[in-house]
Amino acid sequence: MNMRRLIAMTKRVLLQLWHDPRTLALLFLSPALLMTILKYVYWTNPDLFQRVAGSMLGVFPMLVMFLITSVATLRERSSGTLERLMISPLGKAEFIAGYAIAFGLASLVQATAVSSYAIWVLGLKIAGLQITLIYAAILDALIGLAIGLAVSTFAKTEFQAIQFMPAILLPQLLLSGLLIPREAMPRILHDLSNFLPLSYAIDATRKVISNQGSILNDSLIIFLFLTLILSAGSLTLKRQTK
Amino acid sequence: MLPCATARFATVDSRTITVVSAAIRAFNLNVQRGKNHILHDLTVEIPRGVVMGLLGPSGSGKTTFMRSIAGLQRIASGEIHVLDLPAASKPLRSKIGYSTQSASVYSDLTCIQNIRYFASLYLHNEKTPEEILEDVDLSRNADQMAESLSGGERARLALATTLVGSPDLLILDEPTVGLDPVLRVQLWKLFNKLAAQGKTLLVSSHVMDEADSCHQLILLRDGRVLAQGTPAELRLRSGKSRMDEVFISLIGAA
Questions:
Q1: B186 lies in a domain?
Q2: Distance (Å) from the C-alpha of residue A78 to the closest C-alpha of chain B?
Q3: Chain A nearest CA to B207, separation (Å)
């Protein structure tokens, strides 16, 4: 891993994002809008808002990063720039880490803005620290990024890449404990959810909201998943085609 | 060992330079993509410091051959040596510039940002990004977003991205396609200038009248080398003057 190339890679991805004000606006406005809707949907049941909104703070960055990453890497493939990079000295790990750092920074800003909005404007109460919540949200974002990167190799078009969202992310969302606590699910689904990274992401945000228990274990497990998915993703970045 | 049939001397701009070793040597190269056999026992040698034109109809294997040299295409059998190293070996990554048929640049970056980014991937850059843009006559467009460039400007930007680092070999896949005649002449002048600086250029085209801008030509058809030589040699051999007639007559002779 060469520091200079890694910085160049990160800077380039951030520059591209910076040149796309519409995406930047959507990055902040759409989660804020959804949180506001959620607030009024649960107007008669504020406790439920507390429960769902907290988890949602982790879900938004994941969905957004999944979409951005899968489309961005697919664009690199279809425009030929990935091939251009593969014959340059840039390493695969530098390519992936560059995206991870750039989008990680974007989700840091997103999570800070959206959680601040939820706490100060919508009156979301969190028992833990806001900074821990932001940390958990970034972990969620990185899960989305890793899955998005892995998925982009199986998609030939951006159209297909987006179809992977309902196919891969939504089942995780249903099993993650967002709808009902994981413990209350049938045994087999509960066991299954133990193998899905999003479950630990939701667990972590929930623990911060209620300030019950440490999220150290959850974040370790998430890092393990990240390493696995990202290495699988880097294996699919081929320098040579058959 | 490769048969070194081709001359160890290449005539460039009427000067004779000594060629230490070939830039590219392919020996019995076979490439298969899926069920299609794209390249058949291709054996060629390309000297250093020349503009080598790779001509042939579309589907003749030009792109596959170029990708094999760049190390992007897995080969079924045979050997390719590029700058005395096996193709696809790591040290070659800082020595080869390659541009694909579609201009592979980032549309959402400005020209200078594109060049700065690609340049930062190389440890050693012989030119600054500004000088490279100057070379391809894009200095005025430095701060323009690549997506708003015209077709010709975009093609030149893609060419500029191959000039970063300190490449000894430039592989350019149809760099002049869709450009107006004035621009094409400008680009071929630039290719010759780069060759005069000692770089080797492999340039593909399916426009036969571009052949005369090359020092040497490889005519490719159905994944086989139809002929290799200077434009004058190929004319002499076929007895025709126009390059497309030369091509047709060589097909007939094959």
A1: no
A2: 9
A3: 23
Among candidates A8, A83, A240 on the partner chain, residue whose Cβ is nearest the Cβ of B121: A8
B89 is a domain residue:
no
Structure tokens at A154: 């199986």
Residues in chain B: 254
CB contact under 8 A, A84 and B99: yes
Q: How confident is the model at residue B14, as a pLDDT? A: 44
Q: How many domains does chain B have?
A: 1
Which site among A9, A11, A12 would you substitute to test the B interface, given the most B Cβ atoms closer than 10 Å to its Cβ?
Answer: A12
* Strand pairing report for B200-205 and B51-55: parallel
Containing domain of residue B152, as a range?
106-165
Find the CB nearest A86 among B72, B94, B103: B72
Closest CA to A146 of A197, A76, A112: A197
pLDDT in tens, B164-207: 998 999 999 998 887 888 888 888 998 999 999 999 999 998 78
Q: Where are the domains of chain A?
A: 3-233
Among A83, A89, A242, select the one facing B94 at the smallest CB separation. Answer: A89
Q: Please, which pLDDT band fits residue B4 given cuts at 50, 70 and 90?
A: very low
**Would you say residue B128 lies in a domain?**
yes
**Sign of the CA dihedral running A109, A113, A119, A120:** positive
Chain A contacts of B107, Cβ < 8 Å? 79
Q: Please report whether residue B148 resides in a domain.
A: yes
Say which DSSP state B26 is in. E
Asked whether the ipTM of the predicted complex exceeds the cut of 0.90, the reply is no
Buried b (16+ CB within 10 A) or exposed e, A12-42: bbbbbbebeeeeeeebeeebbeebeebbeeb
